[in-house]
What does this fold into?
Amino acid sequence: MTSPKTNTLRGGLIQMALKSSTDNDPETIRQAMIEAHIPLIEQAGEAGVQVLCFQEVFTQPYFCPSQDEKWYDSAEPIPNGPTTQLMQDYAAKYEMVIVVPIYERDDVTGIYYNTAAVIDADGSYLGKYRKTHIPQVSGFWEKFFFKPGASDWPVFQTRYCKLGVYICYD
It folds into this structure.
């Protein structure tokens, strides 16, 4: 669906509760969350949404109240991981920019980040933003899981707009 060019940008946000028990392994949880998001992604695309955003680390629970090492297994590479690649397909199908916040494992360094990939409306990967400000207070052990990003604030030129991304505490 090609969206008409106007001065109005149609945005969409998807946020939902966890769709699988945290007793399950991270891949089972990821699959359940993806399956729950797909109908809403399709609904957004059919409604002409031009920029669609998801919640922080949308494929997993907010696991930072724990220090359970099992959550390291939920990290994926960007852009070559399964979630980013799937969202590239949906972005192209619906000509929709998608901001994809996931738990990233850098394939080169092995470092873990709280990251949002930005996918353009043709399905191309534009880049990513890594959360810069990582809080560490009692009950929120984010530094156990995430390293801070490089503190740059990229602006992505998408088909529809210039887009900046930040994550939660940033």
